[in-house]
């Protein structure tokens, strides 16, 4: 029993000694620097990875402090990894915000110093303006005192005789003095006012530069710091990777296309254009561009049940009839259409249509033509805005390290270069544009898609224009419109409008619209030109539209009324195309032409029809 007590007492004493030794060993805090090593840029944010070198460490527990991190940094996204997890353990992570007397960035400090100098200059201008105002008041008071003294009688005159105190010469000298001083005062005032305007302009420019950097006047500069708890199991120097999500960043694709018509190919040079004011410069960093959108939810929402009832009962039970309360003109049919297309439990309030909202989306493919603005808005929620939605995210890497400043300006970084075999043709739609456009037709034989973006087009080394491209998938055929060719001319006009009555027994009248299109080739070689026009499509069972006489039959006739011809024009050749269409309408009515992007004008319907056909 005594032996057991002694062993227990010895164990307690030993544990106490060990705990006292551990508590006596101080935890070491090291403030270390970091540098940005690589950045993955997303459409609305960036994943930044910094390198942190600890230097030589001995066994023990440390706190490593990394400062000067940007404020937009997302705290929940911070991750720290070690190059040697067997000998270095990460045991803690703490993120804090702290204030600075002055921003650490040289550019921001220089701009703020410049802004302070301008403000000091404005105070000097204000002081000068007050002095000039006091001088003007003094001159006016001196003038008034001079005039008062000039009307008082002289003491040396005879009794009953008033002699003037001042001679004419005195008046002239006073007038000369007063006007010269007043002129100098006015000139000084104007000079100070011009200085004030100049300083205000310079201050506006500096303030604008600071706002691009996310810095605003009278704001206290703040930064974030990350404190990492480490347990070193083996002496040595270690390297940490500190990564986090930062905001104030976006990017888009851009391309240079060099056209080689004789070789029938085009060289495509891809760029990533980054705009960022995230609060940190990416210097000598590896940049990657990703099409992924981390902001989109990765979980599938639950589909609530859909019910059907009589309208009066659905009015009581269904929450979708909020649509009718929002816009009283919505019919039950429109509400049904909205419910069958979407579910408010998923799309939220944004699914409630606003009938007066502008519509710019063009729908193509097998989708039926939208009947109303409401239909357009409903379809717009679910049809993909671009074929980029058809492939999973891709990542492009810069071939070398680059510098991208946090200045709110676009920075263009080269990604890759490739050549694609194409064939070149020309296309014109003279109804909507009086030009002939060069286009390249081919197949994307690359492993990566061509993303939606701006295009700069070069013919050899000469810049010839700008264009745009939609996204093009690998192995997908494309028709890329490049630029206008001024050596090909096109003209379109309404040649004739003829109306025939229904006759004695008829119920419909027939209106014929005839057009003439003229193509001219001023190039030195043959040019293949595709010509696109259209005839109206009837939306009423009482109206029929038929293609009339054509000098050349179109090679394509679409259900949407689109017509296509193809011409091989020789040098200096002029080709004329005539075509017509016939509209049959009830005898007491006139046709009303319209399209999805052109609202009918108020006024005479016949004048409107004529404008539409002349367009």
Q: In one word, what is the shape? A: extended
Radius of gyration: 40 Å
Number of domains: 5
Oligomer: single chain
| DSSP E strands, number | 25
Number of helices: 9
Show unreliable segments: 19-24, 313-327, 343-390, 597-615
Description:
The structure is a single chain. The strands form 4 sheets. Strands 9, 10, 14, 15, 16, 17, 18, 21, 23 and 24 form a 10-stranded mixed β-sheet that branches. Strands 2, 3, 5, 8, 11, 12 and 13 form a 7-stranded mixed β-sheet that branches. Strands 1-4-7-6 form a 4-stranded mixed β-sheet, with no helix packed on it. Helix content is 26%, strand content 37%. The protein is extended. It starts with a helix and ends with a helix. The chain is of the alpha+beta class and 615 residues long. It has 5 domains: 2-100 and 222-246, no CATH class; 106-212, Helix Hairpins; 249-293 and 393-484, no CATH class; 311-388, no CATH class; 488-614, no CATH class. The protein has helices spanning 2-24, 106-150, 168-212, 311-317, 322-326, 332-341, 344-347, 373-380, 605-614; strands spanning 28-32, 34-41, 46-57, 60-69, 79-82, 88-99, 222-232, 236-246, 249-260, 265-276, 282-290, 395-397, 402-404, 410-428, 437-443, 453-459, 462-469, 477-484, 488-500, 508-521, 527-534, 544-550, 556-557, 562-569, 574-586. Residues 19-24, 313-327, 343-390 and 597-615 have low confidence and may be disordered.
Q: What's this, in brief?
A:
The chain has 615 residues and is α+β, with helices and mostly antiparallel strands.
What's the SSE blueprint?
Elements (H helix, E strand, L loop, with lengths): L1 H23 L3 E5 L1 E8 L4 E12 L2 E10 L9 E4 L5 E12 L6 H45 L17 H45 L9 E11 L3 E11 L2 E12 L4 E12 L5 E9 L20 H7 L4 H5 L5 H10 L2 H4 L25 H8 L14 E3 L4 E3 L5 E19 L8 E7 L9 E7 L2 E8 L7 E8 L3 E13 L7 E14 L5 E8 L9 E7 L5 E2 L4 E8 L4 E13 L18 H10 L1
Parallel strand pairs: 1-4, 2-11, 9-16, 14-21
Antiparallel strand pairs: 2-3, 3-8, 4-7, 5-8, 6-7, 9-10, 10-14, 11-12, 11-13, 14-15, 15-18, 16-17, 19-20, 20-25, 21-24, 22-25, 23-24
Helix pairs in contact: 2-3, 6-8
């Amino acid at each position: 029993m005594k032996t057991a007590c002694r062993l227990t007492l010895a164990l307690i004493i030993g544990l106490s000694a060990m705990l006292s030794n551990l508590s006596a060993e101080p935890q070491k805090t090291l403030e270390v620097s970091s540098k940005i090593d690589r950045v993955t840029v997303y459409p609305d944010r960036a994943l930044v990875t910094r390198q942190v070198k600890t230097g030589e460490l001995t066994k023990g527990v440390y706190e490593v402090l990394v400062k000067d991190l940007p404020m937009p940094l997302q705290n929940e996204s911070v991750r720290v990894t070690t190059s040697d997890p067997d000998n270095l353990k990460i045991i803690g992570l703490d993120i804090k915000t702290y204030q600075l007397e002055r921003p650490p960035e040289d550019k921001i400090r220089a701009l703020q110093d410049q802004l302070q100098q301008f403000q000091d200059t404005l105070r000097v201008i204000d002081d000068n303006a007050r002095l000039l105002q006091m001088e003007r008041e003094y001159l006016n008071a001196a003038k008034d005192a001079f005039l008062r003294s000039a009307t008082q009688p002289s003491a040396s005159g005879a009794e009953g005789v008033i002699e003037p105190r001042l001679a004419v010469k005195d008046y002239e000298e006073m007038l000369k003095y007063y006007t010269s001083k007043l002129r100098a005062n006015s000139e000084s005032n104007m000079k100070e006012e011009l200085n004030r305007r100049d300083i205000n302009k310079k201050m506006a420019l500096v303030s604008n530069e600071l706002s691009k950097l996310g810095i605003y006047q009278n704001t206290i500069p703040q930064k974030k710091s990350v404190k990492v708890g480490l347990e070193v199991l083996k002496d040595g120097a270690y390297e940490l990777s500190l990564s986090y999500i930062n905001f104030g960043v976006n990017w888009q694709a851009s391309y240079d296309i060099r056209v080689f018509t004789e070789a029938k190919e085009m060289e495509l040079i891809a760029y990533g254009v980054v705009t960022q004011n995230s609060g940190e410069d990416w210097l000598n960093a590896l940049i990657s561009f990703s099409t992924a959108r981390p902001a989109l939810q990765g979980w599938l929402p639950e589909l609530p049940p859909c019910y059907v009832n009589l309208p009066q009962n659905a009015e009581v039970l269904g929450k979708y009839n909020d649509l009718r309360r929002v816009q009283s003109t919505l019919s039950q049919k429109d509400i049904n259409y909205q419910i069958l297309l979407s579910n408010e439990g998923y799309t939220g309030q944004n699914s409630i249509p606003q009938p007066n909202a502008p519509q710019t989306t063009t729908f193509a493919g097998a989708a039926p033509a939208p009947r109303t603005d409401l239909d357009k808005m409903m379809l717009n929620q679910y049809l993909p805005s671009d074929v980029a939605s058809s492939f999973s995210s891709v990542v492009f890497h810069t071939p070398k390290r680059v510098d991208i400043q946090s200045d709110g300006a676009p920075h263009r970084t080269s990604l890759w270069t490739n050549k694609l075999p194409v064939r070149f043709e020309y296309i014109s739609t003279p109804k909507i544009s009086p030009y002939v456009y060069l286009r390249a037709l081919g197949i994307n034989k690359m492993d990566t898609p061509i993303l939606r973006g701006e295009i700069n087009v070069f013919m050899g080394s000469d810049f010839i224009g700008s264009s745009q491209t939609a996204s093009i998938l690998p192995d997908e055929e494309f028709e890329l419109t490049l630029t206008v060719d001024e050596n090909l001319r096109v003209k379109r006009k309404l040649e004739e409008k003829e109306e025939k009555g229904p006759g004695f027994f008829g119920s419909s009248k027939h209106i014929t619209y005839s057009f003439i299109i003229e193509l001219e080739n001023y190039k030195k070689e043959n040019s293949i030109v595709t010509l696109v026009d259209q005839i109206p499509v009837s939306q009423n069972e009482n109206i029929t539209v038929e293609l009339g006489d054509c000098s050349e039959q179109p090679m394509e006739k679409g259900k949407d009324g689109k017509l296509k011809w193809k011409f091989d024009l020789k040098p200096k050749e002029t080709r004329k195309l005539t075509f017509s269409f016939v509209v049959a309408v009830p005898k007491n009515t006139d046709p009303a032409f319209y399209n999805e992007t052109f609202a009918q004008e108020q006024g005479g319907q016949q004048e409107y029809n004529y404008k539409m056909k002349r367009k």
